[in-house]
Amino acid sequence: MLPHTKKNHPPSMADVHEPLVRRKRKTVLVDYLVQFRWILVIFVVLPVSALIYFNIYLGDMWSAMKSEKKRQKQHDDNVQKVVKRLKQRNPKKDGLVCTARKPWIAVGMRNVDYKRARHFEVDLSAFRNILEIDKERMVAKVEPLVNMGQITRATCPMNLALAVVAELDDLTVGGLINGYGIEGSSHLYGLFSDTVVAMEVVLADGRVVRATKDNEYSDLFYGIPWSQGTLGFLVSAEIKLIPIKEYMKLTYTPVNGTLKEIAQAYADSFAPRDGDPAKVPDFVEGMVYTESEAVMMTGVYSSKEEAKRKGNKINSVGWWFKPWFYQHAQTALKRGEFVEYIPTREYYHRHTRCLYWEGKLILPFGDQFWFRFLLGWLMPPKVSLLKATQGEAIRNYYHDSHVIQDMLVPLYKVGDALEFVHREMEVYPLWLCPHRLYKLPVKTMVYPEPGFEHQHRQGDTSYAQMFTDVGVYYAPAAVLRGEEFNGVEAVHRLEQWLIENHSYQPQYAVSELNEKDFWRMFDASHYEHCRRKYGAVGMFMSVYYKSKKGRKTEKEVQEAEAAILEPAYADEA
């Protein structure tokens, strides 16, 4: 019984926070394959990952040595190759268009099984260059396969950074724009796609257009985020830059209490109730370690001179032998509040080495000092290699007995979301990261609650509602205890909770949504407008079809090619 639960309450009240009671499950062969997977990871995945990372680094350095003019010329040539390839497609014989990227290369956990059916491939692998860093316009022009590690390596020495830098090195600009991207600065700047100034897109008919929020392609500009590349091929983007300083002054604040009290402390850490903008940090995140313990972290950019003043502690968290960041932050629960200075680029990528806390499942001893000192320099394993080497049985095991989901919920409902996750999944740690969801000129796939601006809730403004990403990444406690856990049902209940609470599920994750519920969660109107206007119907698969779990049959492909999709609106309650 939890400390805050009273025995005399009726079950509906007393058990609101209690996890579901589950039966013990039998151990099967795949349990042993997962348990000893670390052998394959250490002797195959980590060494090969290191070689791949080194090869990518050399490629990035070679690209950086070229002049901007030469990089732009190569970009223009590659765009024309894409146009030429699209025009080679025979609509009567060839399948729907998608990239030539192998299914296992994607960082997301969703099954990319649509590529097992008939399709027409277009190779975008050459689009991995930073084209320009414009210090006057404060814009970075980059190709879609540029990743976060590459862009921070180029911009941080200039004391510049993207307004939103997703934490993991391997996350690419294209994925973060076409899908979803967030970081601890999103409470100021919104999602990654909100920081985009312009997009260069190859349309279904081969036209190359530049879309901005106020030109003739503004509808396409607002339609591409969350579309998963189903409106056209993004071949470059101009993204907002901001000035930064060399260090992040990070304050770790422990929180003890109920999940609702933790949620309130989290909101107070970045959205002061008196509305004083001076109290709003540059960065914020929270980690919930148990149903009664959490640590809130708030960061402010600081100069090298300030960080090196006598008495200030500098912590270079990027060194391979350092404790994993989430475990370092957890020490605040015993130490109490403390402050330290972290080199800014190392802070941006603080979760890369241990993949948040997934590294603990992949390598159970990976957080031990001896491993960090001897082999920590090989971390992290490439997610694409982990997927490529897991096989069908292990992949299905993770879908059934593991959770990797993000819940984008209004800030005032974070406490309810935490209680839901504790009751249904009992997964810890949990990640909390706030983001603005802007009220845009058009109703896009994701949008704030109608009338939010009149409620004057904590964190909201007249032009944006404050949401939070509740990151649920780990094995449920039931699985760790050897009990039964139905991952399919748990994800289905999570999705229904999100729909009922005007919340969203990023499409990188495994989804159990049928088409009707998918369009209950997301709004189809503007997306379908863009699909028709820009010739994507019958050329690119729909976003639901692309996100749908499981293999796609030839019949489904043919139906998707022939269909003129109608908006699938849900019945309003």
Largest sheet: 7 strands, antiparallel
Shape: globular
List the strand order in the largest sheet: 12-9-11-10-14-15-13
Structural class category: alpha+beta
How far the N terminus sits from the C terminus, by CA atoms, comes to 37 Å
- What Rg is obtained from the alpha carbons, in whole angstroms? 23 Å
As a percent range, the share of strand residues is 15-25%
Which segments are poorly predicted (pLDDT under 50) over 5 or more consecutive residues? 1-16, 564-573
Q: Number of DSSP strands?
A: 15
- Helical residue percent? 25-40%
Number of helices: 24
Overall mean confidence score, pLDDT: 89
Transmembrane segments: 36-58
GO cellular component, one term: membrane
GO molecular function, one term: Delta24-sterol reductase activity
EC number: 1.3.1.72
Describe the structure.
- With 573 residues, the chain is of the alpha+beta class.
- The chain is 35% helix and 18% strand.
- The chain is built from 24 helices and 15 strands.
- The strands form three sheets. It has a seven-stranded antiparallel beta sheet.
- Helix 9 (259-270) packs antiparallel against helix 18.
- The longest helix has 29 residues, at 37-65.
- It is globular and about 60 Å long.
- Mean pLDDT is 89; it is low at 1-16 and 564-573.
- One of its GO terms (molecular function) is Delta24-sterol reductase activity.
- It is found in: Membrane.
- Pfam families: FAD_binding_4 (PF01565).
- Its main location: membrane.
